[in-house]
Design brief:
The complex is a heterodimer of chains A (805) and B (162). By secondary structure, chain A is of the alpha+beta class. Chain A is built from 23 helices and 34 strands. Helices cover 30% and strands 25% of the residues of chain A. In chain A, strands 6-9-2-1-15-19-17 form a seven-stranded mixed sheet. In chain A, strands 18-21-22-23-25-24 form a six-stranded mixed sheet, sandwiched between helices. Chain A has a four-stranded antiparallel sheet with strand order 7-8-3-12, with no helix packed on it. In chain A, β21 and β22 form a beta hairpin. In chain A, α8 runs parallel beside α9, α9 crosses α10 and α13 packs across α14. Chain A is elongated, with a radius of gyration of 35 Å. Chain B is mainly beta and 162 residues long. A six-stranded mixed sheet of chain B has the order 5-6-3-2-8-9. Chain B has a three-stranded antiparallel sheet with strand order 4-7-10. In chain B, a hairpin with a 2-residue loop joins β5 and β6. The chains are: A alpha+beta (805), B mainly beta (162). At the A-B interface, β4, β5, α3, α4 and α9 of A face β1, β2, β3, α1 and β5 of B. β5 of chain A pairs parallel with β1 of chain B.
């Protein structure tokens, strides 16, 4: 892994060097092609950004029997893994991911979790400062106590080959190497068995991506739990053409890099639990009642979600427990991961989504705490996501799509997502939610279901590149949210990231997940805005949507890298975007284009009778010198005025008087012109157009198209986009000649705020005083700008609220 | 090693990572050359603020619909933002207003510009509500743009503007 880190560092260095810092002059080639930065195309990934003709990926199939011990909150399982080596390499060992080991007290993640450190995941700690003592939060205490009281991480039992012979294995933090009895040659497969168990973490105590949530106030004695199980079985690390084993230690942030495969999973849980899982339920006769099975059938064609388990049934269910057990069996084909949820608290609704001839079951599982918010919107949001995302990529490729409420704010797995929004129980016994929580539910379900496309199917390498799944997915979820309700403020507008774009401490989007600073703006908002600009400004929707869909379809059920995305977008659209990837993804440049000056020019006619008269007019239009004006005010006449009797030729003719000498020269010149030159001149003189030169400068470094709004004297307005390529030979300033019949009054750059231009003060010619945000606020709401408008006389009658109330 | 190291407890709400509740605020300190005033504009995600007011004030507080809650939130923010000059005096920040704009809530303050550097800025809004909150501040119009990041463990930072 050290090798990879080193390679990555050189890549970044190479990137900045590729900007070609010259020793002579200050030219920076913002349009330098990316070929020298991107990995060399090969037979696995070609220059078009497509899987190459010898593209391969491994396949890993799992058969797992797992048992949930509710009282001990412990999961134990046995699994048989079939590993298909489709690579051209011979493998002597296999690497597995032991994600539960991140919770061990001596894990790299725990040991490197710095006290009071930057960008720390988990509860707050604060170092001592002056007389202020160091501080620990209750949450941090709870976490420490939970981790001290519970033995966490995997206990790994037997690891054996298909003949039952023990295989040697070595555990390295969150990774495990299994040494094969004999090397696995290309095209061969191998099987091994593995038994394991672990204590499930309490999500709210440990801050994980899965775990249990306890509900102490439920009617049942001792309360109930919701179990969300993810990263719960030892999963094979991906073995890839670009990195071999992707066995970078799990540090908590950089997510998962996984192989596709088929799963058969048996889940042995308390008999009164309802289970939601990746895959299709194989034994409904054994685990569901006849009524429940009928309701599921009805749901297939229902207009609105149908309850398979109603609220009343769930409430009844959560009052009691049972010693009986049931085993739910699921099968999933071609998935890169497997997650599930189990609880006696779940109600369950379902609705079929017709996709061509297929019916996909959209389903939601939630406790009473989810309330009407979940009943109304969860399953409908799942279906809306599939409708929108499929338009931009491919048909939803699995038979079910689920949204499950539990302690996790939002997390995605194949066919199943965990989503956090809840309702609040009020004193009158009702459950209410705010408008914000409603937006959160719809938004988070769309976002997490969207992840089933990216990266669960378009299987990017999450451990390396957060932006490839979060950026692409946030871009699409913004579209889906605004297609749900235009008023939903879910989209990221370019102006929203201006503060981040100009801020001082940043890393480029192309930074490995664990090393990113400011993950939200870096991996979510900035790529979203960049892709939006690409779609709406640079490429246009038709070209962008075609290329984006091409990318999704090329890499459906395959593993793309950033270069495959960059190359496909260019290759499928026919638009050179190397400058765009360079600026937005490889640098921390921002957009700040200024219109510095506009000069008006007029073409000489060469005809002295016209040109001399114009020059005379130009001269007389100049303001009268103050000297003359003040002399006149003092009634101080000039010598000429005082002596009208002395006059000569020059009193009648000024220096702009045309003589036949000039006229003859003009005629001679005309005669000597070639016929086409004569015609061009005659036409230009007749049309007498206005010639303007616009002078722009680039203060932000990021080259972008210049979006101009031209306003003319006749009141008409014209929007013109100059492609970014105008900056290719001079990246700091450019001039543009503009010829028009009309009289130009003003020019504005980026009038619709489409480019994330960080300073709009220099976007107008002539300059317009731009009120700051605060000034604009004062102007529009003077009444709210001061506390004197509070009715304190009335407000002071308010009684103080006490605890008892 | 100090023998008696005191550890105090922070009363913080446990809030596991929530997608979309980003726990990220952004503020701009801008010396407006036209007015000569130092303008402070704090931007919070409405979704963050919405959950915060329910934890801070009242579980029924509704920042989207209720102007009184917006005002209370603004008062809360103003009380947790301060600029101290090199001589130890606090910059007199005047409250200007609060407004909702799409998915954001903005709180405005202004002051006469500082006369000395370095400035000590403290910005602890929401840092006391949950962990993981990050407040980014861009300082503009006072020389080269500078950026500060405030987090729970460092809610006070000093910056040299020379």
């Amino acid at each position: 892994m050290r090798l990879l880190t080193f390679l990555f560092a050189t890549l970044i260095a190479a990137t900045s060097q590729a900007q070609v810092v010259q020793s002579k002059g200050n030219f920076v080639d913002k349009f330098r092609q990316l070929d020298e930065v991107l990995p060399t195309p090969n037979v696995y990934r070609n220059a078009a950004g497509e899987p190459g003709h010898e593209y391969w990926q491994q396949q890993v199939d799992y058969k797992i029997s797992a048992k949930l011990d509710e009282n001990k909150r412990r999961l134990s399982a046995e699994q048989r893994v079939t590993y298909y080596n489709n690579s051209p390499d011979t493998l002597k060992y296999l690497w597995l991911q032991l994600d539960q080991n991140i919770f061990k007290n001596d894990s790299m993640s725990e040991l490197t979790n710095s006290f009071a450190g930057i960008g720390r995941r988990g509860p707050v700690t604060r170092e001592a400062k002056g007389s202020e003592p160091a501080k620990l939060s209750f949450a941090e205490l709870r976490r420490h106590q939970f981790m001290a009281d519970n033995e966490l991480g995997y206990s790994i039992g037997d690891v054996t080959d298909s003949h039952g012979k023990a295989l040697r294995f070595t555990i390295v933090g969150t990774n495990m190497r299994i040494d094969l009895a004999s090397p696995l040659k290309p095209g061969q497969r191998t099987e091994f068995n593995l038994s394991y168990a672990f204590n499930i973490v309490e999500e709210d105590a440990v801050w994980a991506r899965s775990g249990y949530e306890h509900f102490p106030d439920d009617a049942r004695e001792g309360g109930n739990d919701i179990f969300l199980l993810a990263q719960w079985f030892p999963r094979l690390h991906a073995y890839t053409d670009y990195e071999a084993w992707t066995n970078k230690e799990f540090l908590g942030r950089g997510e998962f890099t996984l192989e596709f495969g088929d799963y058969e999973v048996s889940l042995d849980v308390p008999a009164d639990h309802i289970v939601s899982s990746t895959g299709v339920l194989q034994n409904p006769e054994q685990v569901l009642t006849k009524t429940q099975r009928n309701r599921l059938k009805q749901a297939k064609t229902a207009k609105r979600p149908v309850f398979v388990v109603t609220e009343e049934e769930a409430l009844e269910n959560e009052k009691e427990g049972t010693n009986k057990r049931k085993t739910w069996r699921f099968k999933a084909e071609n998935v890169r991961d497997f997650a599930w949820a189990s609880s006696r608290k779940f109600m369950w609704d379902a609705k079929g989504y017709q996709q061509g001839n297929d019916t996909i079951m959209a389903m939601s599982f939630y406790p009473k705490e989810g309330g009407d918010l979940w009943k109304k919107y969860s399953t409908e949001s799942v279906i809306h996501t599939m409708e929108v995302y499929s338009r931009f990529s491919f048909d939803y490729p699995y038979p079910v799509a689920q949204s499950v409420n539990g302690p996790v704010g939002g997390m995605e797995y194949p066919m199943i997502t965990f989503n956090g929004p809840r309702t609040e129980l009020r004193d009158d016994g009702t459950r209410t939610y705010t408008q914000g929580e409603k937006r959160f539910l719809i938004g988070v379900v769309i976002h997490e279901i969207g992840h089933i496309y990216f990266p669960m199917v378009v299987n990017s390498d999450e451990r390396q590149w957060t932006w490839m799944d979060e950026g692409l997915n946030s871009f699409l979820d913004a579209i889906a949210c605004r297609e749900w309700d235009e008023n939903m403020p879910w989209g990221v507008e370019p102006r929203d990231i201006v503060g981040y774009m100009k801020s001082a401490n940043q890393v480029p989007i192309m930074t490995q997940s664990d090393s990113v600073l400011k993950l939200g703006p870096n991996a979510y908002s900035k790529p979203t805005v960049a892709l939006n600009i690409l779609r709406e400004v640079v490429m246009g929707r038709e070209l962008f949507d075609f290329a984006f869909k091409e990318f999704a379809q090329r890499w459906k059920f395959k593993r793309p890298t950033p270069s495959d995305f960059f190359r496909t977008m260019e290759e499928a659209s026919g638009v050179d975007l190397d400058w765009f990837w360079r600026g937005w993804f490889y640098t921390t440049d921002h957009v700040d284009i200024s219109i510095d000056n506009v000069t008006k020019l007029r073409l000489d006619t060469l005809d002295p009778d016209i040109d001399f008269a114009r020059e005379r007019a130009y001269e007389s239009d100049k303001p009268t010198p103050m000297f003359h004006m003040n002399n006149r005010a003092e009634k101080r006449d000039t010598w000429v005025e005082r002596n009208p009797d002395v006059r000569d030729f020059y009193d009648e003719n000024d220096r702009f008087t045309v003589t036949n000498k000039e006229r003859n020269a003009y005629q001679k010149m005309l005669k000597e012109l070639k016929p086409w030159e004569r015609e061009a001149l005659a036409r230009a003189v007749e049309e007498d157009k206005n010639y303007y030169v616009f002078e722009f400068s680039n203060h932000g470094g990021l080259v972008m198209p210049i979006l101009m709004r031209l306003t003319y004297a006749d009141g008409s307005v014209e929007d013109v986009n100059i492609p970014a390529e105008i900056w290719r030979r001079t990246h700091k300033e450019v001039k543009k000649l503009w010829i028009t019949d009309k009289e130009l009054v003003s020019l504005e750059v980026d009038p619709h705020w489409e480019t994330a231009d960080v300073d709009t003060n220099n976007n107008h010619f002539p300059r317009v005083i731009q009120p700051s945000r605060l000034e604009a606020f004062k102007y529009k709401s003077p009444s709210r700008s001061t506390k004197v408008w509070r009715d304190i006389m009335q407000d002071s009658k308010t009684e103080l609220t006490t605890e008892e109330e | 090693m100090r023998l008696y190291t005191i550890i105090a407890l922070l009363l913080l709400v446990v809030a596991p990572v929530q997608a979309h509740q980003q726990k990220a605020a952004f503020s701009q300190l801008l010396l407006n050359p036209r007015t000569g005033l130092l303008e402070v504009a704090h931007r919070f995600l409405l979704h963050d603020a919405e959950h915060a007011v329910q934890q801070l004030f009242d579980s029924k507080a509704d920042i989207i619909a209720d102007p009184a809650t917006q005002q209370r939130f603004a008062d809360y923010v103003v009380a947790r933002f301060a600029i101290t000059q090199a001589d130890g005096s606090d910059l007199a920040l005047e409250y200007v207003g609060v407004e909702l704009d799409r998915s954001f809530i903005w709180v405005y303050q202004e002051a006469k510009p500082p006369v000395s550097s370095p400035l000590t800025i403290s910005h602890s809004a929401l840092l006391d509500v949950w962990s993981g909150q990050e407040n980014m501040v861009n300082i503009e119009g006072l020389g080269e743009l500078k950026t500060l990041y405030f987090e729970a463990h460092r809610d006070t930072l000093t910056i040299d503007l020379e």
